[in-house]
Design goal:
Pfam families: TraD (PF06412). The protein is mainly α. The chain has a domain of 69 residues. It has three helices and no strands. The longest helix is centred in the N-terminal third of the chain and has 30 residues. The chain is elongated.
């Protein structure tokens, strides 16, 4: 005779796994913000820039931003990500790519490390 399944334990295990994945995603997004230098922006500026990106329908601009993202990660040595971290994790700020943008400079989001906030540069480099 088969052993009955413990649905409550399986559900709890799935909820725990989902919580771990969400926590890891939030941590990786925070590391990405720091690695790109976007932590120098105010929360309002960063939120506004992300909203513009999320609403962007122009495929050419999105492709240019995607290429820039690929070059950012391609220019980073794997060793800078630290031992024991998964490949999707982001490393340190010092490994930032200096590749020029494929996007039009006027169309690019202010997420570069050199971007200063409009509020007088507080927190800018």
């Amino acid at each position: 005779m088969r052993k009955p399944r413990d649905y409550d334990a399986e559900l709890k295990a799935l909820e725990d796994k989902a919580r771990q994945l969400k926590t890891r995603k939030v941590q990786q997004l925070g590391e990405l913000i720091i690695a790109t230098g976007a932590d120098a922006l105010t929360l309002d500026e960063l939120a506004g820039a992300l909203i513009v990106l999320a609403e962007m329908k122009d495929a050419a601009k999105r492709e240019a931003w995607a290429k820039r993202g690929v070059s950012f990660f391609a220019g980073r040595p794997r060793a800078s990500r630290g031992a024991g971290k998964r490949e999707g994790n982001v490393g340190t700020e010092s490994a930032r790519s200096t590749a020029p943008s494929d996007a039009n400079a006027g169309d690019a989001l202010p997420l570069e490390g050199g971007a200063q906030s409009a509020s007088g540069g507080a927190g800018a480099r």
